[in-house]
Amino acid sequence: MALSEVVKTALDHIQYIAKTETVIGEPVKAGEVTLIPVSKVSVGFAAGGGSGKGGDSDGAGTGGGINVTPVAFISICKDKVEVLSLEDSEPTLEKLLLSLAPEAIKSVSKYLKKKGDKAPSEAKE
Fold first, then answer.
1. The model's pTM
2. Which of 26-30, 62-66, 83-87, 97-101 has the highest mean pLDDT?
3. If both were cysteines, with which of 11, 49, 88, 97 could 3 make a disulfide (CB 3.0 to 4.6 Å apart)?
């Protein structure tokens, strides 16, 4: 199969999976409440091909992946609409490290300054 055919086939499948209905799911009714799932779709794709010396051999390949992650629900109850997030309300490690960064930089700067001040006196001894 030619590289262009492989790429077209792969992209057709990706398009089918990553359609709008995947991001905004089918509504689910429970009594007076309607829940609509919301997902995040991440897609990665690569393709390549080439030929050997003198054009004797040809090669082609593709690779890819799709990740569908539920992130929220839209809740509809009578006239009230809410977005219910599935993400943690607690700060992630990344956010925590970013919030501590200024204090950490000050501490490291003070330590290096003190160490730098001691170095010349230690060299005299």
1. 0.52
2. 26-30
3. 49
Tell which residue, 23, 12, 113, has the closest CA to residue 68.
23
d(CA 66, CA 45) in angstroms, rounded, equals 9
What does the block give as tokens for 58?
């040809």
pLDDT the model gives residue 102: 65
pLDDT digits (tens, 9 = 90+) for 10-47: 778 777 777 777 788 889 998 899 999 999 888 887 87
Cα angle 113, 117, 118 (rounded to 5 degrees) comes to 120
- Please give the C-alpha separations between residue 120 and each of 2, 67, 77, 83, 115, in angstroms, as whole numbers: 69, 56, 72, 61, 10
Residue 84 CA, chain-centre distance (Å), reads: 20
